[in-house]
Design brief:
218 residues; SH3 type barrels; single chain; 4% helix; 5-stranded antiparallel β-sheet; globular; mainly beta; 4-stranded antiparallel β-sheet
Amino acid sequence: MTIRLLATLWSASALGLAAAPSSDLLRFTNGDQLHGQFQGIGKGPVAVWQREDVVAPVEFQPSALRHIVLRGGKPARQLGSLSHVELVNGDRIPGTISGMDKETVLLETAYAGTLRIPRDHVTMLAPSPLGGRLHYHGPFDEAEWKMTSATFPEGLPPQPPGEDAKEEDQETDSGRWVFSGSAWYWPGKGSGTALIREDAMPDRAILRFDLAWKSRIS
């Protein structure tokens, strides 16, 4: 199961998170994952990937990839706005919509200047996608969340040193959520562990999130 919180309400720090150095992540269409460093797109096209345990970069066909997660899903720099354009392939390009004609949409960005996007490539314009006042947008930092259970109502104790780095342990029913790529994943088959972010919502709020799963949801 995957939970990706899109929005609940406004926090200035949520838009101004600084990215800590973190490895990149490949997610394959068959469910496999591979940590390493993204080196760019090569001729073919192919995704070029580097790992410390291989001598030369490895190339992967885009058709075998589901996601490329950079810097652990943390932003390289703060976003001044959540305004964006969504493309027909599902990509979202952040920026301020500055104009539009019969053929193109103009998008002002801090990272690439003015982009001219063909209108037939655009499926949605979102100048204010969340509407109203925003208190939270994420998750970008796992430290802002905690896991609780009936046995540990105040929060699960920290994992022993080294265990959190073992990917094979995360695939077992450890009773812990796994944070990766601005999303929380439940790798186990059991239930009973709650994922909590305290003091995130006022008495009245609108909560929006993405939920995805591999098999039947229960």
